[in-house]
Specification:
The complex is a heterodimer of chains A (313) and B (226).
Chain A: H1 2-18, H2 20-57, E1 60-64, H3 70-81, E2 86-92, H4 94-104, H5 109-117, E3 126-131, H6 137-150, E4 158-161, H7 163-208, H8 211-219, H9 224-264, H10 270-276, H11 278-305
Antiparallel strand pairs in A: 1-3, 1-4, 2-3
Chain B: E1 2-11, E2 15-25, E3 30-34, H1 41-48, E4 56-61, E5 64-65, H2 71-79, E6 81-85, H3 96-106, H4 111-124, H5 140-152, E7 158-162, H6 170-185, E8 189-193, H7 197-203, E9 206-211, E10 214-219
Parallel strand pairs in B: 3-8, 3-9, 6-7, 7-8
Antiparallel strand pairs in B: 1-2, 1-4, 4-5, 9-10
Helix pairs in contact in B: 3-4, 3-5, 4-5, 5-6
The chains are: A alpha+beta (313), B alpha/beta (226).
């Protein structure tokens, strides 16, 4: 068993090396396939991260009336925090709001001057609420509405809840991204399917040139597994080397488009992503390459192992 | 050792390649099969290697019906038969050593046996210095000698040589026939098909003449007559 395995691996290596041109052509095609597959994976990740980031930006702000007492705001904060749908609530006092406004408009002299002319601080205190799930904002918004309705006249401390203003925009954006994901998935599957077909046909052609050798081997009494083995080893080598080549290609390509993706996909740099996930990307590319090479070879060679294809003359 | 019992082979129900052939080949014989192209010589050999099935009739090898054998036993049978072809049929990406070693590997021989036997058998066909050459680095005669070395390395019971001298010059033809005679002298049955009159006449062994798929002549010490 060990001797047979050793012989099969050796024969595969030798054949790979000696059929240099055929091996090179096969590697080229498998590399393109893996590169297309990898690119589609990157694109999918970018879309996913963008969606996640957008979802993360969804929140609800409660702006209070200017004279709302802090104790009551804290009281509302506490009751909000006790809601199971709420992830966290952060409080911004009127002074903090003013401070951050001034910071934000440090270069905008006109705005700062206009602010100075006003009597005192015009900015309200606010609570920022993040829900555990995007779908739970509606529950929180309704809770706030009910609470606000209970307070009447002068006691009313809530000025505005921002949920409904943002809701339409957020939903629309989410549906655009979901649509883009679906389209991306369809393109991914189509491109990957085409690449796999081309790879399979290339390897089939490579093995077609060996069909007479397969016949000779059979006439010498070699078993099917012993004939098939070296072809599968060759297929695995095509896949492994192509995975390395595709990984090497990803480096300059992601480096080149990294900044562009960072601008386009809300801060995600595809090159940084590639470097951070180098091992897992290489692992999956390698596995995909080996699987593709080995399975294509096995299918292609099985045709000529059939007794019907045995040709003495 | 080998019997063809009323063997017929039709292709596409029309073309008759073998027509009711019956003959017996004894252990240790050197038998030549002659005939025009398309007379059925190669089809007869294909039946023996189970490369093709007869339309009717039975082919037996040591009393076993070849075409009833399961795959595993068929492989064992093929390992007992060495085949030499007109176009050599060497594995093009393997050296002379590796071509012969492959036949031994297929028969499950050990690395030690391969290391010992391959140089020996190559020396026997006078190719000791071409051991690491690829087929495209050798002449026709040399390639055919490698093919013979490959055919005999597992000490088969039968050698089938299908027009082995068809692509060779007279000197190489003579050498190849001498090697086949030597193999036969050592006890191996040899079946040779050829168009070469001088080869048949010089052998002075059993000659079977075929025409239109039938055996028309079977002479113990025959000559080339068509």
């Amino acid at each position: 068993m060990f001797t047979t395995t050793k012989r099969i691996i050796r024969a595969g290596f030798l054949s790979f090396w000696r059929n240099g041109v055929v091996s090179f052509a096969s590697i080229l095609v498998v590399t393109v396939t893996l590169f297309v597959g990898g690119s589609m994976f990157f694109l999918g990740e970018l879309l996913e991260s963008s969606l996640a980031e957008l979802k993360d930006k969804v929140d609800v702000n409660i702006y209070f009336t200017l004279d709302a007492p802090e104790e009551e705001i804290f009281g509302l904060k506490q009751s909000l925090e006790s809601l199971p749908a709420v992830a966290y609530v952060s409080y911004t006092s009127r002074d903090q709001a003013l401070e951050s406004f001034e910071e934000k408009h440090a270069d905008d002299y006109t705005t700062l001057q206009a602010l100075e002319e006003l009597d005192g601080n015009p900015l309200p205190a606010s609570l920022n609420i993040k829900a555990k799930e995007a779908s739970q904002y509606e529950t929180i918004a309704r809770f706030l509405e009910d609470k606000n309705a209970l307070m009447e006249g002068d006691e009313k401390i809530v000025e505005k809840v921002t949920y409904y203003q943002n809701k339409t925009a957020i939903d629309k954006l989410a549906s655009i991204i979901a649509g883009a994901e679906r389209l991306g998935l369809a393109i991914t599957f189509t491109l990957i399917a085409i690449s796999i077909l081309i790879t399979f046909n290339t390897i089939r052609l490579a093995i077609y040139t060996s069909r007479q050798e397969i016949s000779i081997m059979k006439l010498m009494g070699a078993g099917n597994a012993y004939i098939r083995g070296p072809f599968i080893v060759e297929g695995i080598m095509y896949g492994a080397i192509s995975a390395l080549a595709a990984m090497a290609l990803f480096y300059p390509v992601t480096l080149w488009i990294g900044d562009a993706t960072a601008k386009f996909f809300s801060g995600i740099n595809v090159h940084a992503y590639y470097i951070d996930h180098l091992i897992s990307i290489f692992g999956s590319t390698l596995l995909a390459g080996i699987f593709l090479g080995a399975v294509s070879s096995a299918i292609a060679v099985s045709k000529y192992l059939n007794e019907k294809h045995l040709k003495m003359t | 050792m080998i019997t063809f019992d009323s063997v017929s082979k039709k292709y596409m129900d029309r073309y008759v390649a073998l027509d009711n052939v019956s003959l017996t080949i004894r252990q240790g014989e050197f038998i030549s099969i002659v005939g025009h192209s398309g007379a059925g010589k190669t089809t007869l050999l294909k039946m023996l290697l189970a490369e093709d099935k007869p339309t009717s009739g039975i082919v037996t090898f040591e009393d076993v019906d070849i075409h009833s054998l399961r795959r595993k036993h068929l492989l064992n049978l093929r390992r007992r038969i060495g085949v030499v072809f007109q176009d050599f049929k060497l594995l093009p990406h393997k050296t002379a050593f590796e071509n012969i070693a492959f036949a031994m590997e297929a028969a499950g021989r050990t690395d030690e046996e391969i290391e010992a036997d391959v140089p020996h058998v190559l020396a026997l066909v006078d190719l000791g210095d071409k051991i690491w050459c690829f087929p495209n680095e050798m002449s026709g005669g040399e390639m055919q000698r490698v093919a013979i070395a490959r055919a005999i390395v597992n000490q088969p019971d039968l050698i089938i040589a299908d027009e082995p001298t068809g692509n060779l010059d007279p000197i190489n033809t003579h050498d190849i026939i001498q090697i086949l005679k030597k193999i036969n002298d050592l006890g191996t049955t040899v079946i040779l098909t050829t168009h070469n009159k001088r080869v048949i006449d010089s052998l002075g062994r059993r000659v079977i003449t075929m025409d239109k798929g039938r055996v028309v002549r079977d002479n113990e010490q025959g000559s080339y007559v068509l």
